[in-house]
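wait is this the right file?? whatever heres the structure
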């Protein structure tokens, strides 16, 4: 399940964490990879929010953050797609923190919430591979900042994704639901909330649809397996069809 981790590690854990992530990527072959997102200081002032951009939409499994308070302790929240994934309690030294993300995104936000200024020294990400990312990088989809026709098709597609996940949940075990279906439902819920409130496909709504499309891409192993079960067949087919509709909507 996608549960935000608030694990605090001692000083020196950053290098150990990087080693573990790199080893995990190697052991899993094409299933995962590691990437350095930030290698220079990112200063976060009091009540300020700053982003670390990935440059493309990717499935981020977790990040390792090396950070510290400046002159005094600080508290910083880690946001992904508008959802808090972890809270970093930063003393005036440089420990490291592991934050579980489990989202398709193209940025990580750090929001100051208490104490003094904070310094993010580095961010290292552990990311799952997906053919969706290759298609994004090859320009198969337009930029999420581009506008779409003013209609609320987004809300209808997102709501249908939620309904289909609820149907398929009855035919999924705990592991498959947490790995494949729950991320789709969460992304669909965010897309539905944004599109319903805005009433059109704005830039933010469009970004939420890209996140939903990425989660659907990553759920394909489950969908393919569901084709072999009569009780789940129709819902799996419709979920695959919904993925195709999202692609057309975003082109």
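ok assuming it is, sequence goes like this
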């Amino acid at each position: 399940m996608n549960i935000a981790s608030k694990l605090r590690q001692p000083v020196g854990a950053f290098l150990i964490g990087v080693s573990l992530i790199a080893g995990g990527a190697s052991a899993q072959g094409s299933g995962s990879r590691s990437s350095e997102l930030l290698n220079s200081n990112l200063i976060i002032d009091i009540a300020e929010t700053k982003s670390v951009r990935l440059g493309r939409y990717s499935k981020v499994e977790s990040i390792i953050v090396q950070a510290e308070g400046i002159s005094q302790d600080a508290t910083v929240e880690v946001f992904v797609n508008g959802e808090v994934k972890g809270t970093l309690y930063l003393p005036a030294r440089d420990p490291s923190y592991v934050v579980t993300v489990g989202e398709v995104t193209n940025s990580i936000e750090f929001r100051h919430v208490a104490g003094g200024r904070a310094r993010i020294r580095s961010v290292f990400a552990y990311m799952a591979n997906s053919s969706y990312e290759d298609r994004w990088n090859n320009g198969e989809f337009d930029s999420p900042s581009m506008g779409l026709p003013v209609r609320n098709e987004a809300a209808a597609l997102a709501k249908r994704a939620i309904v289909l996940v609820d149907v398929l949940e009855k035919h999924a075990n705990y592991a498959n639901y947490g790995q494949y279906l729950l991320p789709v439902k969460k992304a669909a819920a965010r897309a539905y909330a944004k599109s319903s409130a805005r009433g059109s496909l704005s830039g933010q709504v469009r970004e939420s649809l890209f996140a939903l499309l990425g989660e659907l891409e990553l759920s394909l192993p489950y969908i393919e397996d569901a084709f072999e079960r009569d009780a789940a067949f129709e819902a799996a087919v419709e979920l695959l069809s919904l993925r195709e509709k999202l692609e057309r909507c975003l082109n």
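The longest strand covers residues 49-69. so i think its the right one actually
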